[in-house]
Amino acid sequence: xxxxxxxxxxxxxxxxxxxxxxxxxxxxxxxxxxxxxxxxxxxxxxxxxxxxxxxxxxxxxxxxxxxxxxxxxxxxxxxxxxxxxxxxxxxxxxxxxxxxxxxxxxxxxxxxxxxxxxxxxxxxxxxxxxxxxxxxxxxxxxxxxxxxxxxxxxxxxxxxxxxxxxxxxxxxxxxxxxxxxxxxxxxxxxxxxxxxxxxxxxxxxxxxxxxxxxxxxxxxxxxxxxxxxxxxxxxxxxxxxxxxxxx
Length: 247
Description:
By secondary structure, the chain is mostly helical. Helices cover 61% and strands 2% of the residues. The protein has eleven helices and two strands; from the N terminus they run ααααααααββααα. It has helices at 2-6, 24-37, 41-50, 54-58, 60-82, 89-104, 120-131, 144-162, 179-205, 210-221, 240-246, and strands spanning 171-172, 175-176. It has a two-stranded antiparallel ribbon with strand order 1-2. A hairpin with a 2-residue loop joins β1 (171-172) and β2 (175-176). The chain starts with a helix and ends with a helix.
């Protein structure tokens, strides 16, 4: 579990994953190191050399990563408590924080049956898997920095529609980003989404319902592990064609 936590691999010696232990202490340790695995390892190196937390505070991507984790955890915790999945707010927060950390970093550990949670919560977790961790980390997904630049690029294009003669530069923190980099990120994003959609259609043609097909694609292309519907826990019950598509 130590190896598959820091490497955001998610393999376990139990079918119930880390939920087998039902231990808040184990979940807390795993949560910290899953999140650490989702941070750019160059930032870890700088922090280690300087013996300071300043590199984490100054890095724009790491700060955005932390915000996404905190906001998503709050959303999931409130949803679980509001739906009555857990009687105590602290319990809802415990399961929410662990599962958000697991899916955001594409680790894939689970401590609860996601199929029993309110319908929108597993979908939120799947979307987090598409976001992924920071560039230069062991996490899967599109990566935080690409998502940030795509949002900035979209906002710039809306601005230019209203002000076609304006000169607008996309910046990451205080650094301007070249048009070549923005174009390559846009191309990567289009390829990522088109591949996901085509795989989803192929898995539906192979016999999965829409929910399970989307979950299977999200679980495999983002290296996340858990999916939705029939593949919420594993791929043991699906046919060989779906398994090959997942591979």
